[in-house]
Each structure stands twice: as C-alpha cells, then as structure tokens.
Amino acid sequence: MKIETYRGIVRIQRKSGRSAKFHDAKNMPLVRFESHKNPFLMLEQYCNSPECNCREVGLEFSEIDESGAPLANRIQFYFHLNLETWKENRKVKRSEICQRLVDEFINNLTDEIKNKFKGDYEHIKKKASRAAKFDMPLHEIKKGILIPYSEVFGDYGSVLSGGSGYSFDFEYQKEKYYVDDMYCLDPACKCNTAHLVFLKYDKETDVTSDLFTAKFDFEKGLEVEENPSIKKVDAIKIFNKWMESDNEVPDILKSRYRELKDISKGLVEKHGGHKKLPEDSLLLVSNEKIGRNSPCPCGSGKKFKKCCGMP
C-alpha cells in the first residue's frame, strides 16, 4: 500500500440539513492498495469538539479511475481509526472487498502515517479549543464585523487588534511583507470575500506598518482600496507576488472564510439567534469538475449554478 498526493481537483459536498454546498479540494491523499486495481481518494475527518477526547480519525475512501472515466460501481467505504491502538473503532458490517481494503490499510500503517494522523488530530483540537473561547455579542455579529483569522486561531492575537500575530509573510524585492486576513462574521452574509491588510517591515526602524488594504472576492478577484501611500499598480504587484509565493493561498482563504462562518453560526445559536443548526458533514462526491450549466448532482433538477453551486 502506498499513499501519494492526488494532483487533480476533487469536489467536496458540504451538507447541512437538507442543503448542500460544494467546494474544490486539492492535494488530497491518494491510496494505492496492492489488492485493488484502482486507487482511492482518502478524506480525513476529525472531531472538533474541545470537550471530547475520542482520539480517533474518520477515514472515507472513494475509488477513482485516474483516466477520468466515470466508474459505474464506485467502491466507497468509511471507518473510524483509533489513534492509540491503531485498530478500527465501532466495527460495522461491510462487503468482503471493503473489509479487505480496511484490513490492508490498517496492517500497512507506517510510523510516518501514524504521526501525521496524530498531528492533524492535535491541530484540529487546538483550533477547536481556541474557537470555543472566542465570543461576540449577537448584535455585533449581525453588523458584519470583520474579524482577523489570527485573532481567533493565532497564539498572539492579530497585529490589527493590538497583538503581534499575522497570517502570512513573504519577500518581494528584498523587502519583508506581512498579510493578515479578515472575514465578515454575519452568517447571513454571502460576500465570499477575504479582506486583506498588507503590512511592510522597515529594517532600519524595526517597525511594521500598514501599507494597503484590499478585498479578494473569490469570484470576482482583487479590489485594492485607494491609499495615498502607494500606487494601486504597485499594490497589485505586491499582491501578485504573494500569490506566486504560495499557490495554495486562494484555497486557504476560502477555507478560512468557511471556518469563520461556521463559528459565527455557532455563536448565533449560542446567543439564541435562531434554532439549533444541524451539524455540517463532509462527503466525497466526485473527482470530476461540475460545469456551472450542468445539472446539479444533488438531484434537484436545477442547473448547478442555480443550486448547490451558488456563491
């Protein structure tokens, strides 16, 4: 058995009650079993309750054809792996083929894979603990207050609110730059935007100061706000250099947007804004790109862009 990185784009369905949204995932683990011809995409799921000490990872496997051809009888299976005993938790009845694949996966776990699962588990729990400590009055949430991601999940608070933390750093023309990202907390707002503050470090004075702000709309792209201290064309060059420094940045920003929206939903529920929200779950649905004018895979009969693919 080997675990590689799948270079294609995978569509992930995010379910909440009867509704569903889709987003693209990249660099997912691809598992090659010795006992099966086709490889399987693997989705890891961890409990994000800070009070729970389950010490397990949920692993969902979905068979793919690397040529891109659809599989008529795609094999999918799921199991909970105990991170202490490295055995299956809560065993269930499954087909002989699926059970064989589960056993092969568990019997071929390396120390590297085990350490990776443990590290991811601790990371998720740490973030869950920080998120649980974050609070904000309901009236401020509904105002669409912008909150820095580093303020919620960082160790030192955001530089934008008096702390010393930030989300990203990069170099451009031998100068050091920092970026902190903020998001609207109103769960009813569908802005799909990351608000960005770019800061520049001055080596001579050892001072980091605001340089410019921008909005990065996940559909429409960048909008740089007017600033007398820098030309818009230069700000765009700095932004593009940041994007070039890490091609995962757009996906990271989208993921953070969803994370903070989930937190805001929890806060609205906590403060009695509306009835209890159903928990979200992730389901691997396809490794094929869905066109905006294609029928929505949820079965509604509508076009994807008018249904689950709506921004």
UniProtKB/TrEMBL annotation:
Pfam hit, one: SEC-C
Signal sequence region: none
Species: Candidatus Methanoperedens nitratireducens
Protein name: SEC-C motif domain protein
InterPro entries: SEC_C_motif
